[in-house]
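Hypothesis: this fold can be encoded by more than one sequence.
Test: take the structure tokens below, design a sequence, compare later.
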């Protein structure tokens, strides 16, 4: 009832509000919703709820990117995703290793893998809001959205190598499984299946539309149907469903026809909003506040707080500041700092940690062995960082508006260049070198 007021006046999105409402409904306040009281079913429900919401969000990002975006921006996207994730993975693992000495380095790598991906749902709520549309260049918003979608699926190899080294009897067998299963079977096959399904559905719907076999309402309904269909097929065979659904969304809108037929429809936005709100209410009730203080596992509030602060400063910002000269979409150090700060962690981290628990043995009351200690420590650490990210990143925009805001758009001093050639966009008129030299 007050959503427009909260979004347009105070710039507080549904992520923060949904999580807060979930905490209120949860076992520590009202006691109305308590997912952790559902026993063994809770892990499966959490895994599948986050899977479906991520699938819808990733498909939406793929569909809403500009025509043939992945082909035109593959260089910047690869540089922004792969090195940044790898650097952040090792940095976070090092922080965890220093703060939680009961965990081995392999367990720290597995925990860090859950915190490596940027959450696409929180990112979409931030870069798709009215503040970002006014102050952040569209090129930067698109690359942040594409990166948040791509690196969610690419978190699988980071997690699987850690788990294989922990669970497999020999390193040789672990690396063999990682290459054959983690990369070829999960990543490569997932992307291939998703892209093929997207292209096939795109041609079928174009054919049906040209011959009048499908109405507008049914055309828009394919938005959700294809996302669920792709997720179901790929997850059933055990491949990377997150990359698959993003590939399907990118493929179905490759020629821009799908966007043209659905651009005036609000159905997809309504579905995304319902899914996102429901999921963050669930996460708010699911958060294990009592596990944030478990001295027997070496988990204490001050260690968790120190970890989150270290992640906030070191996980992405140094890497992107170092790499941005090779990322054409990021033109100034301020844009690089903005991109590094908004490395949100949310539903994606919860999903990856739930997937890891699904592969790890169920721990005893007193964990025995490396795998059981990891299974007991994983979600308290991940969920605390997720809660901190929701608060800090979700409230960063309201804080910026109180401080007078930040404007990353091309400054007015470049307007004479645009006016001299109005048929060209600002990014095509102003060279990257000139844009970097201009004061922001």
């Amino acid at each position: 009832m007050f959503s427009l007021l909260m979004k347009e006046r105070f710039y507080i999105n549904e992520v923060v509000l949904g999580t807060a409402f979930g905490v209120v409904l949860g076992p520590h306040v009202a006691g109305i919703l308590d997912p952790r009281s559902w026993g063994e079913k809770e892990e499966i429900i959490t895994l599948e709820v986050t899977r479906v919401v991520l699938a819808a969000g990733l498909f939406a990002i793929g569909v809403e990117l500009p025509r043939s975006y992945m082909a035109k921006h593959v260089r910047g996207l690869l540089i922004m995703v792969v090195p940044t994730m790898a650097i952040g993975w090792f940095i976070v693992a090092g922080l965890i290793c220093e703060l939680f000495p009961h965990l081995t380095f392999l367990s720290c790598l597995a925990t860090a893998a859950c915190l490596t991906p940027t959450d696409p749902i929180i990112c979409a709520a931030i870069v798709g809001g009215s503040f970002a549309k006014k102050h952040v260049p569209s090129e930067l918003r698109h690359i942040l959205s594409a990166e948040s979608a791509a690196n969610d699926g690419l978190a699988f190899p980071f997690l699987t190598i850690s788990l294989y080294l922990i669970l497999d009897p020999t390193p040789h067998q672990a690396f063999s499984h990682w290459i054959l299963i983690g990369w070829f079977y999960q990543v490569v096959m997932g992307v291939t299946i998703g892209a093929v399904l997207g292209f096939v559905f795109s041609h079928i719907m174009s054919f049906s539309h040209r011959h009048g076999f499908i109405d507008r309402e049914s055309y828009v309904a394919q938005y959700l149907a294809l996302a669920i269909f792709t997720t179901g097929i790929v997850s059933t065979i055990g491949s990377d469903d997150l990359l698959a659904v993003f590939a399907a969304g990118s493929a179905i809108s490759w020629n821009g026809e799908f966007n043209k037929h659905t651009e005036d429809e609000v159905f997809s936005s309504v579905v995304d909003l319902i899914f996102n709100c429901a999921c963050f209410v669930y996460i708010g009730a699911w958060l294990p506040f009592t596990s944030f203080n478990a001295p027997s596992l070496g988990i204490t509030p001050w260690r968790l707080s120190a970890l989150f602060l270290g992640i906030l400063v070191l996980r992405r910002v140094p890497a992107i500041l170092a790499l941005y000269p090779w990322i054409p979409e990021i033109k100034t150090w301020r844009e690089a700092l903005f991109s590094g700060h908004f490395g949100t962690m949310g539903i994606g981290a919860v999903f990856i940690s739930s997937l890891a628990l699904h592969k790890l043995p169920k721990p005893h009351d007193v964990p025995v062995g490396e795998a059981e200690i990891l299974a007991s420590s994983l979600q308290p650490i991940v969920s605390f960082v997720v809660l901190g990210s929701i608060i800090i990143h979700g409230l960063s925009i309201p804080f910026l508006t109180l401080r007078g805001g930040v404007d990353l758009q091309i400054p007015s001093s470049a307007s004479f260049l645009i006016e001299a050639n109005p048929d060209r966009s600002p990014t095509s008129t102003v060279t990257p070198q000139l844009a970097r030299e201009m004061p922001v």
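The CA atoms of residues 70 and 250 lie 8 Å apart. The radius of gyration is 22 Å.
Hypothesis status: open.
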